[in-house]
Amino acid sequence: MSADKVPDTPVEIVSDLLTKARNIAATCENVPEELSSLLQKALDMTRGLDDYLGKMSARESEPLAELYRKTVTHDWDQVHKDGKTMFRLPKECITGHVEGQTLKMLVHLSRAKRVLEIGMFTGYGALSMAEGLPEDGRLVACELEPYLKEFAQPVFDKSPHGKKIVVKTGSAMDTLKELAAAGEQFDMVFIDADKTNYINYYNFILDSNLLRLHGFLCVDNSLYKAKVYLKDTADDNGLALREFNQVVADDPRVEQVIVPLRDGLSLIRRASPASECSRLKGKITDDEVFRGVRGCSILDRMRLDGKVAYVTGAGQGIGRAFAHALGEAGAKVAVVDLDQERAQQVAEELRLKGITSTALKADISEPDDVQRMIDGIVSKWGGVHIACNNAGVNMNSASEDTSLEEWDRTFSVNLRGTFLCCQAAGRVMLKQGYGKIINTASMASLIVPHPQKQLSYNTSKAGVVKLTQTLGTEWIDRGVRVNCISPGIVDTPLIHSESLRPLVQRWLSDIPAGRLAQVTDLQAAVVYLASDASDYMTGHNLVIEGGQSLW
Ligand SMILES: C[S@@+](CC[C@H](N)C(=O)[O-])C[C@H]1O[C@@H](n2cnc3c(N)ncnc32)[C@H](O)[C@@H]1O
């Protein structure tokens, strides 16, 4: 702690008291050596703690460091004397490095997308949390003093995360009412403004549903310099926080814990819908729609944790995007491709993202390769739950010139290969009594895309749809669902080649969406079809083509 810093947290205050006690002991005669040494040891322990936490926590970004420097060197007394702020703002208000990183970590871990801060000060906490938000995340910061918005904004503007922050100046309670009236909801709320109003903010946030059902609150200063539990507390803020903590502890709507970080940080989460039910008996329909199927929200129902998946043709393009999507949703993924090196590269990408993966080489038109692929996955991971049969080839020729070779090669990969994979994976899945098969068909199964000529491709993909419908109805009563995805024209590097460029213009005029499909446009569909959320769907051809087949 620097010499001019006012002790502000329980640890800093203990440290200050110990320093005083040690100094007194040093001036007294007859103080036992052991007492001095114990005082010194206690002092070293308390003094060193915050420093150590700072050193061992992730480093702050340069904009955060600038905000900190700018805040602690600013003459807040003068600003107040000049009438620029309504209140005299102590620089100790700032959350600072360790708390900032803690808030950022909480945003990350909770995957919050919308955060509300009540009491922004110079924006250190706001920017820390914004750094943890995804690119489309948003943080609304309430601040009474307009001067502080002007102070923080130039630094926000230097950070790539500053654009996620919207500052609302004025009384926080007025802003909360405005947000609630606009139907806004937040995943996380950080309360750090006037202490005597904490209880009002808390009640308003819960009563007006500003905090979404599975959201949580962080409340700063909940230990308030230890005054919340010291008997002789007389100051308003200490008493307000003591009452606040008690109200939260007695509130059946929430679960909470106080983390003794700096001046105390309460983490409060809205309890499960089930506990809200008993309180709201009669006012709600307490069913699976309200509670979620098996208690899971719709997004959780699309998680694939613990599932084993494979994707053929996963070395590039759509297959690679499918492999990433299934892995991101929680599945272990076998990346299968004819090209071993590409498969390995994609498997490595997945591992870098923390996804369990393996690379396999297989030619799906060869029964032995397909069987080896399935056996390998089963022996490595104990089963196959998601079979993504995506590999395919596309050759072009006028129908009168289509060679038998082209026809056979197309059918042997696109239809025979898909059949071999469905059969080999299906046998395992039927034994398990569970499985999700997702075949890649094509919009060409519905319409005849033009002007390119691709008889064998179109016909083989129509076959994939019929294969899917037949298996999907034959196996569903034994727990195996079979569906397919029909992408429209997908934007791949090949499409930008000199020879295809004129065709792209033609295609674009045929697509109501006005653009080609990106592989990322197909990712949610594969996760949905792989998840339990789509259990009632089988034999379906899910067409994703920007409306092209409808024109
Ligand atoms: C402890 S500081 C906030 C620190 C900040 N969260 C950070 O990360 O550095 C409290 C802030 O709340 C603001 N404040 C106090 N009363 C308020 C109110 N009624 N409405 C909005 N803001 C208020 C103060 O102006 C001050 O800037």
Automatic annotation (TrEMBL):
GO terms for molecular function: D-arabinitol 2-dehydrogenase activity; O-methyltransferase activity. It holds the Pfam family Methyltransf_3. This is D-arabinitol 2-dehydrogenase [ribulose-forming]. Its EC number is 1.1.1.250. The keyword Lipid biosynthesis applies. PROSITE patterns: SAM_OMT_I. The keyword Oxidoreductase applies. It comes from Salarias fasciatus (Jewelled blenny). GO terms for biological process: carbohydrate metabolic process; fatty acid biosynthetic process; methylation. It is an enzyme of class 1 (oxidoreductase). The gene is zgc:113054. Belongs to the class I-like SAM-binding methyltransferase superfamily. Cation-dependent O-methyltransferase family. Belongs to the short-chain dehydrogenases/reductases (SDR) family. Keywords: Fatty acid biosynthesis, Fatty acid metabolism, Lipid biosynthesis, Lipid metabolism, Methyltransferase, Oxidoreductase, S-adenosyl-L-methionine, Transferase. Pathway: Lipid metabolism; fatty acid biosynthesis; Carbohydrate metabolism; D-arabinitol metabolism.
